[in-house]
What we know:
The complex is a heterodimer of chains A (110) and B (182).
Chain A: H1 3-28, H2 32-58, H3 61-91, E1 100-103, H4 104-109
Chain B: H1 5-27, H2 32-48, H3 62-87, E1 96-102, H4 108-120, E2 124-130, E3 135-141, H5 146-167, H6 170-177
Antiparallel strand pairs in B: 1-3, 2-3
Helix pairs in contact in B: 1-2, 3-5, 4-5, 5-6
Protein name (chain A): Cation antiporter subunit
InterPro entries (chain A): PhaG_MnhG_YufB
Keywords (chain A): Membrane, Transmembrane, Transmembrane helix
Amino acid sequence: MSAIDAVASAFIVAGALFSLAAGVALTRFPDILSRMHAATKPQVLGLLLVLLGCALRFRNTVDITTLVLIGAFQLTTAPVAAHMVGRVAYRSGLQRPDLLVVDELADRDR
Amino acid sequence: MTGDARTRRANRAVAVLGMALVWILLWGTFSWANLLGGLVVAGIVLLVFPLPPVVFAGRLRPVPLARFVAWFLRDLFVASVQIAWLAFRFGYTPHGAIIGVGLRVGTDLNLTLTAEALSLVPGSLIVEVDRAEGVLWIHVLDVRDRAEAERFRQDVLALESRIVAAVGSPDEVRRTTEGGVL
């Protein structure tokens, strides 16, 4: 196993750990808005690390261009998906006021 | 920032080239046939799904762009570690806050870029967008009091400044650096 393969494995394992953390956070966080945080950040970083590991492992342009596209679309779509879910949750009254120290959106709508 | 026919055409050309690039990346190898195929597909996509024009008044500045990307990657890493840490802190309930931040540059492009970047950086999620006013309502995770929420507001404006410095027009850059906080 070459040094590059070792680095690639390290990236993939780190990415898997971030994805695991995202999954744990998804089940443990108290309300839907907090859960959307878990669905965007650690999950995206985890995927990027896995893609980076794969790129180091494959080392040919045909595969790497596909990996670049996966990463780019993940970065652009994950926030939109989380925003849509969060927005619908808030409008349906699924937010928990007891978990919010400030809610300026409610102040505006009042 | 006039949406005249010339800028409209230039924006369409950028969109076609961008989509053609994605097409070539999907095939994985560059060939003239791929480039031609990509241009044809991109043209059809633009014809079939016409979108409202995106006004791009600024220009790309490489150094601020690199600075923005570096900050973004750092923020993404910090955010992920923070949430991973929260996930394994049993018996602790993270509180949040929803704050409204009025951006100083209310163009569609800036609103979108700032919202996208914000969603991926520490503790923020866009709950609602007021496009007419240029206001983002952001859910912030793990906030204990009002002072922390205020500090986050400053972070959002700093992020906006970095984006505008990277892609904004000179006028927009002036607006964000003069510190006219809404």
